[in-house]
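wait is this the right file?? whatever heres the structure
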């Protein structure tokens, strides 16, 4: 496979000597490629259509902030846009994502996820410039629904067959009365956390990082654990995180909200 002819000249020059392979893991709207070359550091290139719902600029800003906060994540190497497409070039973290790290037991992987979320949630919210409180996220969810980009065929099994409009009505009706605010990852699924040699090595796919209720992350983490390993490992994850009995209504709510993203 060769690079697309639409690759900006500056990126093409920077990536001389690299070969690339499509990375199909995850559900990002962007196309993701892993780049490797003889004697060269591994990189990732993300490409998306430019538009109001693009996330690569958000990801670059959040990675830079997270790095400055002292937590491990990929280096932002280059950003390009021609008005039709956006490109983001980032470094590769050592190791394997927690969904794929088969050398580690499932229990070890959920404990690493819990520790990584604890470290992120311990950051002071006053230091985080990214606001993902419900007031903002519900507005974005509504805009995505009105733009017709909510994939109703990709809803979780319990909600398949329902319309986005019906789910949005549920979001408004069931909205929690309070928010337990922390700095959240925003998409806290196992593939978005990386481990190397049995240790957590960093956060990836951080375009939705921001201040939100901690159940935003716990809800998606629990769903991801159940999907990958079964429900029996949800409680060990919650125990390691330090919240053995989260609010079940909030867990349901933030899984519902995720249908719009």
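ok assuming it is, sequence goes like this
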């Amino acid at each position: 496979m060769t690079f697309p002819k639409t690759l900006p000249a500056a990126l093409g020059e920077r990536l001389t000597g690299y070969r690339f392979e499509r990375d199909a893991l995850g559900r990002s709207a962007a196309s993701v490629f892993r780049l490797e070359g003889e004697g060269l550091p591994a990189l990732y290139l993300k490409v998306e259509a430019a538009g109001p719902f693009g996330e690569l600029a958000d990801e670059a800003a959040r990675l830079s902030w997270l790095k400055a906060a002292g937590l491990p994540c990929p280096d932002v190497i280059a950003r390009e846009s021609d008005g039709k497409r956006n490109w983001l070039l980032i470094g590769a973290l050592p190791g394997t994502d927690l969904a794929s790290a088969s050398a580690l037991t499932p229990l070890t992987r959920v404990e690493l996820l819990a520790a990584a979320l604890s470290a992120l949630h311990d950051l002071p919210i006053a230091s985080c410039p990214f606001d993902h409180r419900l007031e903002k996220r519900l507005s974005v969810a509504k805009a995505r629904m009105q733009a017709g980009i909510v994939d109703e065929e990709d809803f979780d099994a319990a909600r398949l067959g329902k319309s986005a409009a019906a789910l949005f009505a549920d979001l408004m009706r069931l909205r929690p009365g309070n928010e337990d605010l922390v700095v959240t990852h925003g998409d806290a699924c196992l593939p978005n956390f990386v481990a190397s040699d049995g240790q957590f090595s960093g956060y990836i796919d951080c375009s939705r990082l921001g201040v939100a209720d901690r159940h935003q992350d716990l809800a998606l983490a629990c769903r991801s654990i159940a999907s990958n390993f079964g429900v029996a490992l949800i409680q060990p994850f919650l125990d390691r995180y330090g919240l053995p009995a989260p609010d079940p209504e909030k867990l349901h709510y933030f899984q519902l909200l995720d249908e719009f993203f």
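The mean pLDDT is 94. so i think its the right one actually
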